[in-house]
Amino acid sequence: MIPLPESPMPARGRFELRTWYVSLLLMSCGPRQDTGCLAQIKEIEGTSYASNQKAGTITTAEPTIEKETRSEEDLDVPWQVVVHNDPVNLMSYVTMVFQRVFGYPREKAERHMLEVHHKGQSILWSGMREPAELYVQQLHGYLLLATLEKVS
Amino acid sequence: MEIRWRNDKIELSELDPFLTELLRQIPASADTSGAPAAEQRLFSSPTNGKETEFCSEWKMYVEPELRRLFQTATQTVAADLEQLNGNEKSLANRILRIPAKHADAWLSTLNQARLVIAAKNNFTENELNDHFRSPIGSRRDLSLFQVNFYGFLQEFILREMAS
């Protein structure tokens, strides 16, 4: 993750080109709604997500079709949502995403963001597999590098 | 270029032709076509490689949904940028007004563009942190400048949203 520079992009909302000699010839180079596909899979399996907006809140519906795609062991083992460092995403952006997806207060979101930045990754959440999948899906919607991993 | 929040809109004024052109290139810059590295970054693996069944489900069901999500955001941005259409002469001192309700779409598209440009150019972390690299003398320098400029816009939008 990268912090924004103070110059040439000052924080006062003014962007100066300064002495950047640019040929316009070079110029020829050349929400939000959340996704719900895994939720569809879960519906087929008899479980539906109540809301994508409130990540992690799920309700179980009456199962109509029994279709086992994963072992019970998989569902019982605790899973964790891991976010990995990438050199492009802004620190402030990552913090905002953590606040939005997990509902963390700013301080906690910043702590995780800094852990990602300094240690290369941070465990954002752990628990049941299905909400973990949904979290990963949301994080990918925000273009963060996130993975679902078994708690070892 | 001046950027400020005004009447529920983000207003970019005093735009010179160069920055105007950079803004107009945002949607095209977010396009991963023909760039496997960029494609791989935008649609990264949801696991550490051990969950093959989950990965194939993800590819089949989630990835298309993510594509739609990103495309919708890009289309919103492209529509806002139509304000900048015109001949080159008229590009001087143009104003771009972005409705507040489009802020999320802008954040997403600017992020897509930055990630795609960085992946296409394979920028190192040192390069990305070298904000004083100048003057722009090559395509690579220009791309790095784009990443930083789009980052500046993101930062402004984030700060305004937070306040």
Describe, in short, the structure shown.
The complex is a heterodimer of chains A (152) and B (163). Chain A is α+β, with helices and mostly antiparallel strands and 152 residues long.
Please give a handful of descriptors for the protein shown.
heterodimer; A: 152 residues; alpha+beta; Ribosomal Protein L30, Chain: A; three-stranded antiparallel beta sheet; two-stranded antiparallel ribbon; 34% helix; B: 163 residues; mainly alpha; 60% helix; 11% strand; globular
Task: Characterise this structure.
The complex is a heterodimer of chains A (152) and B (163). Chain A is α+β, with helices and mostly antiparallel strands and 152 residues long. Chain A has one domain: Ribosomal Protein L30, Chain: A, CATH 3.30.1390.10. Chain A has 5 helices and 5 strands. In chain A, β1 (48-49) and β2 (58-59) form a beta hairpin. In chain A, α3 packs across α4 (106-119). The two termini of chain A are 27 Å apart. Chain B is mainly alpha-helical and 163 residues long. Chain B has one domain (2-162). Chain B has 7 helices and 3 strands, in the order ββααααβααα. Chain B has helices at residues 17-24, 26-29, 36-42, 52-81, 103-121, 125-129, 139-162; strands at 2-6, 9-15, 94-99. In chain B, strands 1-2-3 form a 3-stranded antiparallel beta sheet. Chain B is globular and about 55 Å long. Chain B starts with a strand and ends with a helix. At the A-B interface, α1, α3, α5 and β5 of A face β1, α1, α4, α5 and α6 of B.
- CATH superfamily placement of chain A: Ribosomal protein L7/L12, C-terminal domain/Adaptor protein ClpS
N- to C-terminal distance of chain A: 27 Å
Number of domains of chain A: 1
Segments of chain B where pLDDT lies below 50 for 5+ residues? none
Structural class category of chain B? mainly alpha
Percentage of residues assigned to helices of chain A: 25-40%
Shape assignment of chain B: globular
Distance between the termini of chain B: 22 Å
The strand line-up of the biggest sheet of chain B is 1-2-3
Strand order of the largest sheet of chain A: 4-3-5
Q: Could you tell me the mean pLDDT of chain A?
A: 70
What letter string, H or E per element, gives the SSE order of chain A? HEEHEHHEHE
Helix content of chain B: 55-70%
